[in-house]
Amino acid sequence: MKKLWLALVVTLAGSAYAGQHMGIGGEVTVNGTVAQGSLSGAYNSADTTQQIGCMLYGTPGSPAYAVCWATDAKNVHMYCESDDPAVVQAAATVSNASYLIFIRDKAGQCLSVSAYGDSTTDLKRPQ
Amino acid sequence: MTRRGLAALAAIAIAGAAAGYLAAPAPAKPAPSGALVQAPVTHVEALDREALRALLREELAALHVAIGEPAPVVVTPERAAPALEREPPTPEQDENHVVGRALLDDALARRSWTPEDAGRLRVVLASVSPEQRRELIRELIPALNEGRLQPTFSGPPF
To answer: Most CB contacts within 10 A, which of A6, A110, B75, B143?
Structure first.
């Protein structure tokens, strides 16, 4: 009986220390004009389809462009682009540890880019 | 009560009334649009300022009528800022733009966007004018989102 209690305590402690995770498995989802997922979740996913990220494109003398893209497990793609400085700045903060959410309008322009970087986002596991 | 005592009592009453008048809050009124935030003012100061503003308005209106000028227009920074000069594309940029357009048209006809297309467009985008670049990107992205172009790969579109 003592061992049973000890096992229960260890189990509960283990789940408490596991920490809160954003997005189940960090999988990439594309839902209409909203795409989200963690970069590391996509990297760690079992399939080879999921992907999410942003790139910055700059040339001298013209505004920088941010382009974000996502592909979910069902191979649904979504893209947005913007040369708005606020969007470019947000896209520039995306890192391997980010949970990324971006929203587009009908013309494919980014309405928002949100990059969350905190303890709830996944970390890449070594392959 | 002595005469001196009566005088002191009257002085205190007058001072109290004046203090109450000055300390009374000014009646609430909406702030004029674009007005700076002002420190609280006493009722007397507010009256003086209002009177001064009214006087200035009257004088300025009379001046404009006298010299036959319309009332001045407030110029915001946006109005004052000159429009950005856009340089026309060079012949070389025009040539590269034609290549980019042909690339997109070809892909739209095939209804697919391949890594090779992405690589070629990346080169084109580096050698066109900013306006031409914007036009090409803003044609590509909606086509990908709407399925008119089916990407054969995951990742950045160029």
So the answer is: A110
